[in-house]
Structures are given as C-alpha cells and as structure tokens.
C-alpha cells in the first residue's frame, strides 16, 4: 500500500526536511524541475533528440518556481522557450524568486499570461508546461486564468500531434486533495508529481485532466510509520497478499451464505455466490425463498442451496456457527432484504458475523434507523453513488458542493465520515473506489490510467464484487482487507478478460488472475 499525501502533508514533509538542514527549498525546486524535464524526455524521446520550442506558464507560487527551473533547463538544452507569468513578481515566494532571477539572468524574457494566445502564434510548439498552480491552489480559478488555459486547450486542438502538455505536480485548477475541478481547463498528457502521488490524481475529475501520472523522487524522507494516525493516511490499494490456501479442510476456508431474492430475481445472488466460491470460500450456500427454489436449483452445481422461509428460518440457519460470512442485498428486493436484516439484529440469539450489505439491503438500511443502528464493525457496505446518497444524504450533498476556499471535501473525507457514522467498513464504488473503516483508515482503489477497466460498467458486476468480499470474509480476511483485495481482483479480472466482459465472466476470469499473481 503506498500513501497518497495531501497538499498540507507534503508541505509538512518539505518544511521538516528543510528545517532539519538536510536539504534547502532551492535544492528541492531544482530537483523537481529537473525531474519534470527528465520525465518529459522519457515520455517523448523525440523531444530529447533535438531542440524544439516550448511555452511555459508560470504561476505566483512555488509551482511557478518549478516552471522557471524547467524553462531554464530546456533553454540550456538548446530549446527556444517562451514564458508567461500570472501574478505579481514582487510577491513570488523566495525560492521561486531566485529561479525567476536566474531565468532573467540567463537572457530569458517574461510576458503576462494574458498574452499567451498571441504568443502561441502559428509556429510549432512542441511542449506546453503548466506550472500555474499545484498543491497551493486555495480557491476556484477565475477567468483571468481560466481564459488563457482555455485558449491553450483550443489552440492545441487545432494541431494534430504537438504540442505535448505536461502539468507540474497537478493540472492547474485541480484540487490536490479531492480531484475536484476548481476551474481546470487544460487536460494534460502527462502530470509529473513529486515524492508521492496525491489523492487528487485518482479521485473525482483528476484522471480526466492528468493524462498519465509520473512520480519523481526529489530526495524527501519517507514519513516514519509510527508518526501516522490511521485517519491521517490515505493509501492506494495495490495487489493483495494472503490469498494462498494452505491445505486443511474446506471448513477451514469458511462457509459463506448469500441470500437470494425471489423467483425471477435470483441472478444477482447467484453471481455473488459464484464470486464467493471462486475467491476461495470453502463452501457457499444460497439462501433462497421458496418461490425461487426450483429456479435456483436448476442453475447451480458447486454452490449449495438452503430454503429460507422467513426471518425465523434465517435465524435458525445461523445457529450453525460454521457459516461465518453473509451477503445480503443483490436482487433481494427491499422488503425481503429488510425482513432478513431484521433477523440479524441480535434477536433470536443470532451471533453477529462478517456481513456484506449491498444493493437492496442498503436501501432497506436507509429506510430503517433501527436496522442502521444494528450495523457492527464486521459489516461491509458497498454502495454505488446513488445508494451512498440514500444512506448518507448530508455527506453526499457536501461532496457535491463546489469548494469556495481551501482544499475541497473529497471522496476520501466523505467515505471516512460515512464509515464512522455506520460503525463499519464502507466501500464507495466507481472507477475511483474509496474504502474506509470506522477508525478513519482509508484507501483508494483506482481503476484508471494503466488499470482502466471501463468494461466493469456492466449489469451485475457490483454483485460479483459483493461476492468476492463475502468469500474473503469467509476465508478470515478482516473487513477492510477483504474489501481492498476484492476491489483489486475485481478490476484485474476485467482487465485480464478485456473487451466484451459481462458480469458472469468476472468470477470465471479469477483463476487466471490468481495464477498471474503466482497463487
Ligand atoms: N511541497 C514540496 O515538497 C515541494 C513543492 N514544490 C512545488 O511547490 C508547489 C506548491 O507551492 P505553493 O505552496 O507555493 O503553491 P502553488 O500551487 O504554487 O500556489 C500558491 C499560490 O497561488 C495562489 N493561489 C492559490 N489559489 C489561487 C487561485 N484560485 N487564484 C489565484 N491565485 C491562487 C496563492 O495565493 P494566495 O492563496 O496566498 O492568495 C499563492 O500565491 C507544488 O505544487 C510543487 O510544484 C516543489 O518545488 C518541490 C517540493
Ligand atoms: N468505468 C468504470 N471503471 C472501473 N470500474 C467501474 C466502472 N464502472 C463501474 N465500475 C465498477 O463496477 C461495479 C459496478 O457496480 P454497481 O454499480 O453496483 O453495478 P450493478 O448493480 O449493476 O452490479 C463497481 O465495482 C464499480 O466500481
Ligand atoms: K500545475
């Protein structure tokens, strides 16, 4: 798991390194600028082969300072560089000011940002460098910046190949902490960031603007593990550990019970059950209302079937302590889901166990405070955006609002708040899936950039995800780890299968994905 650092966390690390005397702000700026130029040459080797013309847009803070370094280094490489500045020279921070002076001393000239349209002219520009704003963006951009950025974007569209556009740290107007679009107008081909990626590269509108993201090491120290509180960390989900199955009896790998809806709506639960079985639960049973018994029986083989007449029958089935993970919601219908959830409220001596609540079970929870209050730390809620808004309307509203000042409220903030309120793990689905536990531990699973999986946007894929999590819970994974590993494997199945994927394919692709992991 790698960390994603917010703007404030990055500043704190930078300040600590500078105050300890191990590095100066100027060193960091020089390394940042050099890192950008190297990343550009790696991304587009043709640009390194001979000199070209570049346009660099510099802003009023240290992001602009990085831009001055890039401009100077490109000129030293033999390039013709035109630099456009937004802001007051007298107010540049000290390190940016030094690099501004170095640029002028070397013979560089500076034009106001307003002139960029005329400055682009009709000649070929090979590279546009966006160094207007980075982690210090503190409010939405106004037209003074949006207009020139839009001009560059239009101008770029009129040209077939060049210029390449590179953003330093973040595309300007994108909030580093949330990925909220605060006036970004220039989608970039490449974003070069420093030390670690930021949440905004993966959340919200971030991926629409960043192009590809490269991380450059500028020699800042790692944060010591002991210094972090769980709610101080947003992690990025990587490939899962602990998936090996070691010998033992099938019951050692758990028994998952997936509850189904009635006749005609059993497909979702069957998908979830198949997912739970493929991911390694020792046994998987579908709990089926009488109306659907024949339908389900004719469709399953390795998955078992148990008739569930009503809540009392479910409570009875759950007297079997070997059933150690539950999945409720897919295809159940709200009324049936609500009845079944009633059986889990600890009445009738039902021991709480790890439980995934998805789809109709989430709607049932949203409609009944008593059911919501019965959630416990071994539950995992897996809402998509609509379900999330039904369950946590105030949090969803805050997430939709445009920030007027400071970093915007992010999907990570929202899911943390939701998990704390629910008292269990919440996984909010999407290309940027965010997972949090009630203590504030939070991670982002990104199915974007080189892990893009648009074929997952297909009916039933969420049901398989619920099944994957349930299967891992049955295997003994902790709720947060089960949610993270399932999200990663789910996306990997889609990537491995590729175009044409439908939900049934996801569990069937899992063996190939596990083999590729060496399992
Ligand atoms: N941290 C590190 O380790 C390293 C960081 N480095 C680099 O520093 C960058 C961060 O620099 P930074 O903090 O100076 O912020 P930056 O993005 O340049 O903007 C601040 C300026 O913008 C202004 N401003 C803000 N919003 C505005 C708006 N909407 N419209 C208009 N103005 C607005 C704001 O004004 P104010 O809010 O004070 O009025 C202030 O003047 C970081 O992204 C990276 O590139 C590297 O050099 C290496 C190591
Ligand atoms: N464009 C996309 N890129 C990556 N993952 C996606 C995309 N669209 C949807 N997904 C994933 O597919 C699943 C869809 O779940 P859900 O919305 O519940 O659909 P359904 O109810 O049809 O199963 C989620 O895991 C979500 O993260
Ligand atoms: K920038």
TrEMBL record:
This is Bifunctional NAD(P)H-hydrate repair enzyme. Gene3D superfamilies: 3.40.1190.20, YjeF N-terminal domain (3.40.50.10260). Its cofactor is K(+); Mg(2+). Keywords: ATP-binding, Isomerase, Lyase, Metal-binding, Multifunctional enzyme, NAD, NADP, Nucleotide-binding, Potassium. Belongs to the NnrE/AIBP family. K(+) binds at residues 63, 130, 172. It comes from Roseovarius pelagicus. Binds 1 potassium ion per subunit. (6S)-NADPHX binds at residues 62-66, 134-140, 169, 268, 331, 384, 463. The lineage of its organism: Bacteria, Pseudomonadati, Pseudomonadota, Alphaproteobacteria, Rhodobacterales.
